[in-house]
Amino acid sequence: MNELSEMDELFDRLFPICRSITGDGVRETIEILGKYIPLTMYGVQTGTEVFDWEIPKEWVIREAWIKDEHGNEIINMKNSNLHIVNYSEPVNTVLSLDEMKTNIHTIPTLPDAIPYVISYYKERWGFCMSQNQLDSLVEGNYHVFIDSEKIDGELNYAHAILPGKSEKEILISTYICHPSMANNELSGPIVATFLYNRIKKWKNREFTYRFVFIPETIGAVTYLHQHGEELKEKLYSGAVLTCLGGKDKPISFKKSRNLNAPLNELMDYLVNNEKKEFQIRPFTPLYGSDERQYCSPGFNLPVGQFSKMIYGAYTGYHNSLDTKEMMTIEALLDSLNEIEYILKLQELNGYYINKKPFGEPMLGKYDLYPDINAPALRGRSSNKILDNRQQLNQILTLLNYSDGKYRLTDIAKTLGYSLEDYAISIDDLKEHSLLEGPFFEEGELLR
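-> structure tokens emitted (447 positions)
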């Protein structure tokens, strides 16, 4: 199968699973993803303190339904995981319609949608249905039944480490806790999974890549509790992947709180200097995903967020209208391509060192300078330095500014060529031992 078909197949395997912040749904999701990439799963026991939080009990949900007084089924969670308020307490009782309505959630402005409702940290029970279905219910008694329990168990997360030349890391983080939603849940894990396999094929990876799959918020806090000091030491940059569906929509990047973060600078360059059609959003702790935890002041990690059809800005957000058809697998493939492109540029966008800095090297003997200079032949030559001096301009500029003080983005601004255009010139100079790099700290070698 091609990538598009494989992504579609993975979606279909993951969508039916009833996920929450703990429990079998998370473990099953990790097990399936682990068939695509080599994940290591961890478990943190109920009651463990993780900074200001505590790992909650596992939620076990077996059955949930409502029936009318004639035994007719009104809703059943086997038809949609969204019908049950996530983390509901057990209940088995008969209520009048008015009594039952106090525990029914709808979205009046989207009368056909079933909302996604959670109550992780306060004990309650409830059901969700469309406003139209609620309006259709007649007076009478209703049997409400939830077979659930909360047990001492564990919170699970997983990661995969893809080594590069350096121990400096790029973090790719996504969440695995929402049931029955496409864009707001499965877009991130699917793109992250296929991004891992794309990066695995890169030759000469500069960075080590850390792919993290966690329940949102509590999972990120837990991951930082267990791996935060390691991330503070090793992390070069990173991004949370979420809401990456949406046909014909551009990639949107939410900046890291750390304004000097490498991805902040790279995305600004691509938008402002190369006029790429990406969107840039400022960092805010008011909404978003796990970048808020990675960017909390105790860590202040250089982690942004990639989205496309952004949370809260589309009609299917946190409800049953968030479907594969609305998201489209094709949009996920586009997001995969664009994020891979950005990460490749980040590998290129370091500092370089001219290894023969005393005067210009004699480029002709390396076949890096036009082998004839005549007015009638301007721009034409028997060697490969053609293209109206573009490559020669790049080579001369690279050699002059490669003193360990300028990133490639700084150098590229002087000529106006796109960042990716420099890859060939850099490779040519390195092949002839004229250039060393990239390094990712000013004046220092990447180690």
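The chain has three domains: 3-56+154-348, 59-151, 351-439.
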